Amino acid sequence: MRLRNITGSREVIADSKYVIQESGLEQCPGTFHEIFGNENPLHIEIGMGKGRFIHTLAKEHPEINYVGIEKYSSVLLRAIQKMEEEELPNLKFIRMDAEDVLKVFAEGEVDKIYLNFSDPWPKDRHAKRRLPSRQFLERYDKILRKDGFLEFKTDNKDLFDFAVEELEPAGWKAKVITYDLHADEELMQGNVMTEYEEKFSSMGNPIYKYIIYR
Ligand code: SAM
User: Fold this and answer.
1) Residue ranges per domain, the chain?
2) What's the pLDDT at 6?
3) How far does the centroid of ligand 1 lie from the alpha carbon of residue 49, in Å?
């Protein structure tokens, strides 16, 4: 998702108390319990877009701390606006490229990772930019607690097939793989729709999902 540049979005982000500021990211690893002021588990969404999914989850689960990561200021701005309408103490945002997750989270600090409708990067030469690629799985392996899970949803079959093929070489295993999430009553229990999920499922596209671990 890339929205038109919105004038002033960088300034809003720089002033926002909901955002962990770029200048403070280096000090982050190992400090998320201090940042949130409690000992609750930490769940993160990488490439959160406008933040609907993570905002809903944070509202439903005050006993979990959430961090939403988004690369683009213009998109993050929308998530900030949502927080201004409905403030939640257990949700923070970071504007950064997911390539830098190792600079922000300590080893095993994250209890769960969500990837939703990640950009497909269809050209082969861009495969390593795909968020479920083995290069990213290697980074997630470091920050995710040893018995933690990663959940990924998409409507893009090619991206999903690629993501499933990446598991074995990267040393991950699937607990769940579905090629039609919305037809699975059990998996749909507690399913929180993302913006893209709502859009593409309403067009009749099946939604693919895996839950993986090492
Ligand atoms: N997760 C949302 C949803 O399901 O509605 C948004 C999906 S949108 C297709 C993908 C989002 O991931 C975009 O907002 C994009 O800017 C963000 N993104 C893509 N690559 C990223 C990266 N390397 N680091 C951080 N965010 C990224």
Assistant:
1) 41-213
2) 75
3) 5
Contact residues of ligand 1, CB 6 A cut-off:
1, 47-49, 69-72, 75, 97-98, 116-119, 194-197
Q: What is the pLDDT of residues 118-164, one digit of tens each?
A: 999 999 999 999 999 999 999 999 999 999 999 999 999 999 999 99
User: For this structure, is 119 an active site residue?
Assistant: yes
Low-confidence ranges of the chain (pLDDT < 70): 1-4
Burial label, 104 (beta-carbon count in 10 A; 0-12, 13-18, 19+): buried
C-alpha 196 – ligand 1 centre gap (Å): 10
For the segment(s) 41-213, the CATH number from 3.40.1160.10, 3.40.50.980, 1.10.287.600, 3.40.50.150 is: 3.40.50.150
Amino acid making up residue 89: P
pTM (whole model) above 0.90: yes
